[in-house]
Amino acid sequence: MAALVVAVAVSGCSRGEAPRGAATPSASASAPVSAPGPGTAAPGEGQGAGGAAAARVEPGKKVDVYRHDRPGSLSPVVAGFPSLVYVPNSDSGTVSVIDPETYKVVRHFRVGKRPQHVVPSWDLKTLWVNNNEGNTLTPIDPATGQPGAPVVVDDPYNLYFTPDGTSALVMAERLNRLDFRDPRNFTLRRSMEMPCRGINHADFTVDGRTMLASCEFSGHLVAVDLTGPKVRKRVTLPGHSMPQDVKLSPDGTTFYVADMAKGGVWLVDAARLAVEKFVRTGAGAHGLYVSRDSRDLYVSNRGAGSVSVVSFAKRKPVDTWRIPGGGSPDMGGVSADGRKLWLAGRYHGVVYVFDTVKGRLIRTVPVDAGPHGLAVYPQPGRYSLGHTGVFR
């Protein structure tokens, strides 16, 4: 079946000794950074004048949307949190907590039915476990690693936040809805029916006004102006597509969209919302993660049992890291220093740890059945846009 991607206008290093994804931090990069308050635009990322046009990057202007994600750039909010890896085990209804230094599971607790992702809140203070079939969100205090009382939310397959921090966006995949909720107590504000099936992953344009979200089970690119709301544009993806994760390029000009059916990534012009090209990476292309130096995109190929390293400058793969004997690398995140990539082994009951300097698998950690969208926490950045950690 084909797939649908929705663009939503919203207001408000394996090659060399130094890892490509773990750039040596400058003095300014290592200093703590602060998040803007909810409802305010981040420096250099103003919401701009009203309207629903997609973001355009000014010619000649140097842009790096991940400039606040450098090694050492931890917000004061998270600076005291213990470094841990939180793994939702979808088939077991549990979360495994891993110490990244010892690779040992140090905590294990039950949550709701079919937990899919562990999502950092916009203000960085809470981790939310998305219990998809349980219709709840389980909060985790990252200061202690302990879970709290669940909050009732319909069909929370995935969770994002508007860049200004004013709304939580629940990807109700089963219900084909995008639900706008209060980002603190998750009171429902409004629901928007999607002209697609299976909305699940997303990222935002550089100005924060447009969200590009993938719908796994239908077949187009669709621009939706939420100030209407109305569908502004729909583009058909070629052939049988199943888009998954979405990531904006560091310069803000291109969205990369993983396609599990085609085994690669689509490059989509962020201003025109038009497909530019397709780049093959490997069977089951699924998760997308930006290196800490903004040079590369790590693509987890779930069917191929590998990770492709795509150069943003060359717009093509420049390396492949293979799991000996195969595997099922899925969703995860990059360590705070950029030297490790952690990915859930969806069908193998393990977590994979890749060395981004040497470009190889260095460890597997056994967990429960069906590990999915794990979160490495804390990570650098001023605020979270959601998923397993999309930081700005």
Radius of gyration, taken over Cα atoms and rounded to an integer in Å:
19 Å
Oligomeric state of the chains present here: single chain
Examine the secondary-structure arrangement and name the CATH architecture.
7 Propeller
Biggest pleated-sheet summary: 5 strands, mixed
CATH topology: Methylamine Dehydrogenase, Chain H
Strand adjacency order, main sheet: 14-15-1-16-17
Instruction: Give the total of beta strands.
Output: 30
Query: How many structural domains are formed by the residues?
Result: 1
Fraction of residues in H or I helices: under 10%
Give the helix/strand class.
mainly beta
Q: Figure out the total of helices.
A: 1
Highest-level CATH class: Mainly Beta
Global shape:
globular
Protein name: YVTN family beta-propeller protein
Keywords: Signal
InterPro entries: Host-pathogen_enzymatic-act, N2O_reductase_N, WD40/YVTN_repeat-like_dom_sf, YNCE-like_beta-prop, YVTN_b-propeller_repeat
Report on this structure.
This protein has 392 residues and is mainly β. It has a single domain, classed as YVTN repeat-like/Quinoprotein amine dehydrogenase (Methylamine Dehydrogenase, Chain H). It has 1 helix and 30 strands. The two termini are 34 Å apart. Residues 1-33 and 40-54 have low confidence and may be disordered. InterPro entries: Host-pathogen_enzymatic-act, N2O_reductase_N, WD40/YVTN_repeat-like_dom_sf, YNCE-like_beta-prop, YVTN_b-propeller_repeat. Residues 15-56 are annotated as: Disordered.
